[in-house]
Amino acid sequence: MNELANRVTRPSKNTRFHLSVSLAIDPFSPLFTLLHAAIFPSSIEFSPYTLSLFFFSLLSFFQLTRPDCYSFFFFLPGKRGDLSIRNRRFEETMLGFSNGTGGGGVGDDDLAQLQSTMRAIELACSYIQINTNPAAAEATILSFHQSPQPYKACRYILENSQVASARFQAAAAIKEAAIREWSFLATDDKGGLISFCIGYVMQHANSSDGYVFSKVSSVAAQLMKRGWLEFTPAEKEVFFYQINQAILGSRGLDVQFIGINLLESLVSEFSPSTSSAMGLPREFHENCHKSLEQNFLKTFYSWARDAALSVTNKIIESHSDVPEVKPGASWCDVLLSSSHVGWLINLYSSLRQKFALEGYWPDCPVAVSARKLIVQLCSLAGEIFPSNNAQMREQHLLLLLSGVLPWIDPPDVISKEIEEGRSGSEMIDGCRALYYIGTVTTPVDFDRLLRSIRPFGTLTLLSMLMGEVVKVLMANSTDKETWSYEARDILLDTWTTLLASMDGSGGNAWLPAEGVHAAASLFSLIAESELKVASASATANEDDADCLASVSAMDERLGSYALIARAAVDATIPFLAKLFSDRVAHLHQGRGTVDPTETLEEVYSLLLIIGHVLADEGEGETALVPDALQSHFVDVVEANNHPVVILSSSIIKFAEQCMDADMRSSIFSPRLMEAVIWFLARWSFTYLMLVEDCNLGTNQLKSLPSRACLFTFFNEHNQGKFVLDIIVRISLTSLMSYPGEKDLQELTCFQLLHALVRRRNICFHLLSLDSWRNLANAFANDKTLFLLNSVSQRSLAQTLVLSAYGMQSSDASNQYVKDLMAHMTSSLVDLSNNSDLKNLAQQPDIIMLVSCVLERLRGAASATEPRTQRAIYEMGLSVMNPVLRLLEVYKHEISLSLSSTLLNEAKTEKYKDLRALLQLLSHLCSKDMVDFSSDTIETQSTNISQVVYFGLHIITPLITLELLKYPKLCFDYFSLISHMLEVYPETLAQLNSDAFNHVLTTVDFGLHQQDGDIVTMCLRALKALASYHYKETKAGNTGLGLHAAGHTDPNGVHREGILSRFLRTLLHFLLFEDYSLDLVNTAADALFPLILCEPNLYQGLGNELIEKQGNPNFKSRLANALQLLTTSNQLSSSLDRLNYPRFRKNLNNFLIEVRGFLKTR
Known about the structure:
It is found in: Cytoplasm; Nucleus. The chain is mainly α. About 70% of the residues lie in helices and about 0% in strands. The protein has 52 helices and four strands. A two-stranded antiparallel ribbon has the order 1-2. A two-stranded antiparallel ribbon has the order 3-4. Helix 8 packs antiparallel against helix 9 (about 210-225), helix 22 crosses helix 24 and helix 25 (about 570-590) packs antiparallel against helix 26. The chain is flat and about 100 Å long. The protein starts with 5 loop residues before the first strand and ends with a helix.
């Protein structure tokens, strides 16, 4: 054992293997990593990465133990002689050799050509390594990979080249060619390629170029998967027999190493997350994955387990009986019925004690792998435990917890050792073990585990452990993330896992009393820690990026803190109320004499913590008062004495002080106001004017006194309307008194004010408040609010229009919206009628006004509801002509000729204007906008269609290919074109020739973008266009008319019609270009009507493809595939719902059949 000096490091998910140097004890490591990975093929779900890790460990061990020189000659036993015959026939036909020397059996001319090819590839690889003319070198290698049937040259290079990278490229070329040409390879050739790869790696088992034989192994695995559903069980058995013989070790450690490598490659290839792209449907990969899991996974486990245990015995040089994990009828027999777990824990404990004084022990591979296995064993759950043996799981977890305890208990002692220099990895793994136990148990079962061996429960240990971690964090205030940061996050996840399910069913109703006390103590320490961090941050210099990252992380962390607080609300709510009142009192006492910065940061942090404790986010759903806050304080009968009411009222009273100018200047900084607004938004959506039976959780809580207190105090008959008025006035203050504070204004508009109008009952009261009328008046007339950014403008307009729901009637709601928006619409109309519009429109204040009004119109339109639809429609109609006049004025300012200057501020604003106009036109041509009018459907369609038609004429010249390189503008434009063609395809047909061709040129441009969404929208546009033309012509109409017909230009050159052009383009795209397979179905929907529109061209293009095929077999296959594309699956020439899925299936089958050999031309 002392002679073994190589260390093996466990790979990441993207790493095959890595070798380095370490200590003699390291050879233990592969056993634990091996068992860890093999034991969890699926938990119990199939997890190829962990099984790959297991195979990697065996590879690592064999690399440790194989001799310096080892000879091997690949042969097959007599009963497998048929494979030897197949290999020989394959070598003579496809690889061109009749012996294994790499040269025999090849003519002089062929040999010269092979040598020339090898030298070219070697030279290209060398050029890439030294970065000399890399483009030409890459082109040479790419040409080699794309050449048809390069197998002779590949074998020659593999057998004869002295350049490892050239051999690597040869293996890659085999893979690419075989996958590409698979459909027309003979069955013997497919199996021969796989056998050649397996034989090659075994013949070169002692090679020092590990990455080459790893590549060849992966090629064998990929080809085996490609033919998996074709090969018979007997053929698969031939391949696996070779691999199994290697793993048994009878041919030496080198070959045993290779056998494990092959299995690792195979399992990795069959994993959905690590499989290679083969241009096949997802169902193929899923079927292969399922087949391997059901039929071979346990066999692989048995092979590798036997190998692992046998070599481990040799390493540890022990004659004692090592309990063997014997596979049985189920994974339960493999993992639980044997004494494997107890043996593993005892072995780790013994080694831990033996090497306790060695500093390297916690981080050496054997320790890391063993702990990882123990931690993963903690996560076993589900059917692996017999349903009639409830105690088996508890005994299993108790055994594991007993083994883990020395890693984490006592927490203070272990923490001190880590701070003095010991590695924290063992402590962190202990935290992970608690987390996994928490994921498979209830809080009561989790707490009970430790009571059988300690005088306290597991929850108390969890609280002590996290408390110690928090103390370390407080003592070591540093930006560098140490072990304590990782431990804190893992322990927080443990608390979250245990408490999250209880939070929706009665708070801590099921938490033991000791657990409640532990949670309360822990939360007290957490709050102290957060306030200390907040205080220290007052003098810290953080850039914006770091600040944003920390806020995001903090929000997730506060959610976990809130669950801990709710587990002990009887203690934590009064505690938070005292903390907040103390900080506010300190602010007032030191006002004008003491720097309040540190205290302000503490108040900021407290507002975030309290907001998370009192209310959930409620994004996208009705916010409920947390059950934990309703199920406690049962002795409270007066609402004024309810701790939640006291805490909420104290914060609202504090926030109200921001309306005083002196208080704003001394206390309410923009940062603090952000926390105030955030809290009020979260709180009001949960507590303000609660609707009975809606916001108060489960039925069993509705009769509790605490529930009645929460319901009555802030409802509309008590303090609700008073608090609502305060919140509106605070909102107006934040918008008017903090100019330029973008984040604060967005919070106010998008979160707080929007939260108020999300509930209908609040809207009824809003419109009766003077403060709300003041806000609406400021929106319409105050220039300060014109300075809000575009997001805030839209959100504020949307909120004010939504509040119209509070009016008594539909007429009143429409009049409210008209009055609200009248100033904006009239200003736009007046501006467009100005005789000096061209010059006036260039003034900065006018540009800002136009942009602001357009954003507000967008916001108002997005708030449309049935009772306000008439006002919104009339508003949109009244500004359409002014908008088009302004667009005519601005179109030259934002054309491509000036696009290079769009980066400066003025041009960027004009770019935004164009985006806003595109979005406005998109809203107009949407059906929702059409339905707003009370006129007949026919009248609406005519009016809107004409507006869209006129708008297209204006916008089309502005949109150039260069301008479409701006991603957001590109998305908005193609979204408009796609939607417009689906709703008003006849509008495009009415465009003049130049405008029509320009639009379709942009669609062709979009088809070749890398953004899948853009390509999808272009394909949808083509589908709509072709479908319109086909249906119209079938009905006897002209459809696209001259646009679809070919013509001869003045130079005598024939020009194809637009549909012919796109049929040719789309077929070329599908057959020869690279694209995501997710696009195939959308492309099929576009191709189908194009073929129906141009059947003669489709037939001609098919004949051209067929004639270009030199191989008669290819010609026959292509002709048959083209025929089946338009005839199979009962496909008919009708654009109905049944035919589209039929054609999608046909196209998928067509591409699988022909794309491989067409791309090799």
